[in-house]
Structure formats: structure tokens, C-alpha cells
Amino acid sequence: MTQRSRSGPGHGYFGPYAGSVLLHLAVFALFGIGWLTWKRATPPMPQQLAIEAVVVDPAEVPGLRTSRREPQPEPRPEPKPAAELPPPPAPVRDDSKERQRAEARQRAEDARKAEAERKAATERAAEAERKAAAEREALAEKRAADARRRLDEARKRAEREADLRRSLEAEERARAASGAGAHWRDLIRAKIMGEWRRPPTARAGIECVVQVTQVPGGEVVAARILSCNGDAAVRQSIELAVMNASPLPPPPDPALFERNLQVVFKPNE
Predict the structure, then answer these.
(1) CA dist., res. 262 & res. 242, Å (int)
(2) Which terminus of the chain has a smaller tally of CB atoms within 10 A, N or C?
(3) pLDDT, tens only, 53-65
């Protein structure tokens, strides 16, 4: 309490500022002393003098010998033994380029595999299509063969039925014609017998087959003995009887008409 009252109220407030001012003054003083010391230690810059010179050719100066030294080649360093040579630096591998090449090879391999798979898939699809087409063609051919077989069987069955009908009709006509034809031939034979004049040389048991050629209407145009057991007079008498029997009796059915008839001539019956 006694000291604070002696110093007064202003002494405690301005104390720190006074110390700071003194510190800055000391720093500026040290800076000035250092600059003066450096200034004295730096030598002065040399003064440049102006010199006038004339270029003279040494050959024009009498008595002046000039010697020109040939440039000497620089000595080459002697090669060091192989044992003293440092080892060559190891090549620096560029992993990025190697990786890029590996990736490019992998992409090319993947592309080749993809192309091979695509070609294989295409070939499998083409093979499947060929097999399907072959199966469709075989099925169509089988159906066509079955249709042709059925048509052929139907045609053959129709032909058999037609042949059977024709056979039945022919048999019926033959039976009808056999009786009508036989009766017609009997009428022709009777008319020829009515025109025959027995020659004196005719003997019993005469049997001759004569071919009679006629035209529609019964007119006889020719008569020829095919076989006969009589003599020439008998044969001639039979041919003359056939010609005199013209016209011959007409058949009961025009379908029975025959242009050439073979008549068996037996006068003893």
C-alpha cells in the first residue's frame, strides 16, 4: 500500500509501452551498425579505361616471326578393363505398355472366340434347317407316294371291276350268240345244201370245210375249200352250191355278222 502510493497512478499504466519503445530502438540501432560494416567491407568497383587499338596483319610487319601452334587432339581416355566397368543399367520395364499389350491380346482372343462361337451357332442353325427341310421333303414325298399308291390301287380295282363286267357281258353275249349264231349257221348250211348237186363220184361220208366270203346283205363274193375228203368234182360242186346260195340268210343280230365264215359241209347228215 505504501509503494503504490509513492509511485503515483501514472507509473503502472505507461510501464509496458516504454519497454516496447526501447526494444524497437535497439533493433534499429543494430540494423544501422550492420549496414555500415557491410559498406566498409565491399571493395569499390574498378574504373573502366578507354583503349584505342589498330588491327595489324603480322605478315606485313618485317622481322616479325609468327608461330602457329597446331591444335593438339585431346587425349582419349584409355578403356578401362571389363572388371572395372560399371554394370549396365537395368532396363526399365514399362508395365503399362505390357499391360496394354496383354489387354489387346485378350480382347483379340475374346473377339476370336466370339466369332468362332457365332460361326458355330450359324452352322448349327443351318444344319438344323437342312435337317428340317430334308424331313419336310421326305414327309411330302411319303405323302405323295401314298397318294400315288392309293390312286394306283383304285385304278387297278376299277380296271379289275371293268374287266369283270366286260367278261360277264362277253359271256352273256357268247351264250346268246352261240345259240343265235349256231341257228344262223344252220340256216346258211341248209341253203347251201339246197343248192348242191351231188356229182356221180361222190361217196358216202363226205366232210368238207369251206370258207365263205360275204358282204353286208348276205351276197357271196368268194368260196374256197379249206379241207375236203372228196375228189375234185365234189369240191367244185360244193363251191358252186355256195355261190348259188347267195344271198345268204342275214344274222338275227347285226353284231353276229362275219365277213369270212367257215362252214362245215356234211351232205350225209
Answers:
(1) 12
(2) N
(3) 555 555 565 555 5
Residue carrying C-alpha cell 602457329 = 68
- Residue 267 burial (CB < 10 Å; 0-12/13-18/19+)? buried
Q: pLDDT for 126-181, tens place per residue?
A: 999 999 999 999 999 999 999 999 999 999 999 988 988 888 777 766 666 667 77
Relative orientation angle of helices 95-195 and 232-244, to the nearest 10 degrees? 100
CA geometry: angle 215, 219, 221, nearest 5 deg:
75
Answering whether pTM is above 0.85, one says: no
Q: Which three cell numbers stand for residue 129?
A: 434347317
**Best CA proximity match to 216, nearest among 247, 195, 180:** 247
Residue pair 230/208 in contact by the 8 Å Cβ criterion:
yes
Q: Report how far residue 48's alpha carbon sits from residue 209's, in angstroms, rounded to the nearest whole number.
A: 181
Grid cell in block for residue 2: 505504501
Place of cell 572395372: 84
Residue pointed to by grid coordinates 357271196: 220
The beta-strand segments (E) located in the chain are: 208-215, 219-228, 260-265
